[in-house]
Amino acid sequence: MSMSSNEVLNFIGGAYVKSAEGNVFENRNPVDGALISRVHEAGQAEVDAAVAAAKTALTGPWGQMDVAERAALLHKVADGISARFDEFLAAECADTGKPMSLARHIDIPRGAANFKVFADVVKNVGAEFFSMATPDGTGAINYALRVPKGVVAVISPWNLPLLLMTWKVGPALACGNTVVVKPSEETPTTTALLGQVMNDAGVPPGVFNVIQGFGPDSAGEMLTRHQDVDAITFTGETTSGTAIMKAAANGIRDVSFELGGKNPAIVFADCDMDIAIEGTMRSVFANCGQVCLGTERVYVERPIFDEFTARLKAGAEALQLGRPEEEATTLGPLISLEHRDKVLSYYESAKDQGATIITGGGVPPMSEDLTGGAWVQPTIWTGLPETSSVVREEIFGPCCHIQPFDTEDEAIAMANDTDYGLAAAVWTENASRAHRVAAQIESGICWVNCWFLRDLRTPFGGAKQSGIGREGGVHSLEFYTELRNVCLKL
Ligand code: NAD
Ligand code: 6OD
Questions:
Q1: Using an 8 Å Cβ cutoff, are 35 and 210 in contact?
Q2: Which range marks the domain in which residue 400 is found?
């Protein structure tokens, strides 16, 4: 398919498909700017074909399959990803530039786990049942049937491409829907590769389809406007979510949104400093800061502010920038030169607004073979007011603003003073304080003494402008199924 010929194609009705109009765009490696592949952009013809294939597949063998059979097939898909682990790993790291040590432990295993978890969830869900009295004394029973929503559009971002795409495709398929996936234009490859895995596992043609391309005025927008799409699940920027919600309004289609964040970390003086530093290093710099759950705002209780800041600075300066395949690499590049321009504009704003630069703040010197890459320095600032754009807007880079606080109430107020509400991290050894503070943070998840840890059966999603709905475990059934009540008079 796609990769051997250095072409990435659409996947429609179980077959790889080129752009009928011959529209092809370049996919470049953010490490050095090298050309990885040419990607066939879907136009209206491919989008229509993909949605039609998905609609047809709903009533074919897929629609007849019982839940145990479907679950077994999804286990085979997971095993198929694991069997081609190295291929997925190489493709993901080439598209994103992220360290292989990271993707090996997070992205690819979660790509497989997302199918197993939801296959197991749907097998174990019972039905709601109520018996009721009737005036004639015979009575009636009510029971709820869960049926698939239909054709689900899955639109995914570039930061954790396989992980976040399968996080939606897994539950959608487990619930009996069919999908049309539009991966990010920056990271088309692992989604394309999943098509082969689906075929090899025996998933019927048309159940899983992929269209390649961009968002606005391209495949993404065409997909969200398509009236045979029954529901849209989207992960990405809040501004893109706004546009997609408008498209979904036409036809009153359901949406599930996982959007941006500007997440706080609150570090109390009674924390275990080693654990808090290790966790904050990850929540600020993992994946070069391109994690929606990352903490770009760090609030530290004043008595430990200087020590914590010095240790975070030392950690940032010890990060090893380099190629994904080098085991010593702990920090990759940003996803693209375009995204680097955005991140660097915040680095400039921080300077202009009078920030104290604790470390970083620019472009690192790189060896000649890497100068074409999207590199930035890991960066820490302090001294900005809470009203600064650097403190309020999502940057999505390896950076944070660190601010001292004096009281618990002050820390909570600053943490909640944001338009977003995705995640937070609290570091304290005081159990009462941990519960008290976590309950007051206005976000979908609050970690205490950890970060990015989560049982996949729990609800995941964002408050405020960070999203709509919750997915994870049985919570995903709310979005991926329709409930029908049957009332039967005895
Ligand atoms: P993005 O919104 O630019 O793009 C995401 C996807 O949407 C891409 O496939 C893109 O082509 C498509 N798209 C964009 N505009 C569209 C439109 N109008 N119609 C249809 N499709 C459209 O986001 P990104 O830059 O790829 O990812 C980074 C953002 O995603 C950050 O804001 C980050 O916080 C967010 N994110 C959130 C979560 C979460 O779980 N809440 C997870 C990962 C990333
Ligand atoms: O772990 C997940 O399921 C998830 N949705 C993570 C989101 C990460 C954001 O970048």
A1: no
A2: 263-455
Report the nearest-CA residue for atom 15 of ligand 1: 215
pTM over 0.85: yes
* Residues contacting residue 47 through CB under 8 Å, at least 6 positions apart: 180, 211, 219, 222, 223, 226
pLDDT of 301-333, one tens digit each?
999 999 999 999 999 999 999 999 999 999 999
Q: How far is CA 239 from the centre of its chain?
A: 16
| pLDDT value at 2 more than 70 | no
* Number of domains the chain contains: 2
State the Cα–Cα distance between residues 309 and 252, nearest whole angstrom: 49
**Tens digits of per-residue pLDDT, 166-206?**
999 999 999 999 999 999 999 999 999 999 999 999 999 99
Query: Residue 291 domain-assigned?
Result: yes
Catalytic residue among 46, 186, 221, 258: 258
Q: How far is the CA of 368 from the centre of ligand 1 (A)?
A: 32
- Cβ-proximal residues to 308 (8 Å cutoff; 6+ apart), any chain: 267, 273, 276, 277, 300, 402
Q: For 3, what's the count of Cα atoms within 13 Å in the CB-facing half-sphere?
A: 17
Contact (CB, 8 A) for 250 and 455: no
Closest atom of ligand 2 to 290 CA is 10
What is the DSSP secondary structure assignment for residue 375, as one 8-state letter? -
Flag whether 460 is in a domain.
Answer: no
- Is 292 in the active site? yes
Kindly give, in sequence order, each residue whose CB lies less than 8 Å from that of residue 322, ignoring residues fewer than 6 positions away: 99, 328, 329, 331, 332
Q: The tokens 């919750």 sit on which residue?
A: 470
Helical spans, DSSP H, in 441-474: none
Which atom of ligand 2 is the closest one to the Cα of 454? 1
Residues 281 and 312: beta-carbon distance below 8 Å: yes
What is the 3-class SS of 227-262, one letter each residue? CCCCEEEEECCHHHHHHHHHHHHCCCCEEEEECCCC
- Assess whether 214 and 287 both reside in one domain: no
Q: Which two tokens stand for residue 457?
A: 């059966």
What residue type is 450 in one-letter code?
C
**Non-local CB neighbours of 59 within 8 Å, separated by 6+ positions:** none
Let me know whether 239 and 272 are in one domain: no
Q: Are both 308 and 238 inside the same structural domain? A: no
Q: Do 291 and 395 touch, CB atoms closer than 8 A?
A: no
Residues in the chain: 490
57, part of any domain: yes
Pocket test for ligand 1, best of 292, 456, 465 (most atoms within 8 A of CB): 292
How many CB atoms sit inside 10 A of residue 145's CB?
12
Q: Which of 292, 399, 400, 446 is catalytic?
A: 292
Helix and strand numbers, DSSP H then E, in the chain: 17, 23
CB atoms within 10 A of CB 227: 9
